[in-house]
Specification:
Elements: E1 2-10, H1 17-28, E2 40-47, H2 52-67, E3 73-80
Antiparallel strand pairs: 1-2, 1-3
């Protein structure tokens, strides 16, 4: 089994009202160094083992067809190695 991440973000030219709301709220909470906020979404997929190129191509096809609205969103696919190489599961018992 392999884990694949698909991060989806609005394209830079698309207005992000949720990101702007967060950006306006952060200084009121004492976080004065924030210059910009863009909100996105992340999909964590578990796929049958395959070579990294096949995993990446499969996840990209999923993103293009369902996970992202490619008219207004960009996406990035990251293939994580299973087991100890996965930073989110390393050291887990």
């Amino acid at each position: 089994m392999a884990r694949v991440l698909v991060d989806v973000m609005l394209k830079p030219e698309i207005l992000d009202p949720q990101g702007q709301a967060v950006q306006r709220a952060l200084p009121r909470m004492g976080f004065d160094t924030v210059l910009n906020v863009r909100q996105g979404k992340r999909f964590e997929l578990e796929l049958d083992d395959a070579d990294p190129a096949t995993l990446e191509a499969t996840a990209a096809a999923m993103a293009e067809k369902l996970l992202a609205n490619t008219v207004i969103e960009d996406f990035k696919v990251t293939v994580l190695s299973a087991g100890a190489d996965d930073p989110e599961t390393a050291g887990a018992a």
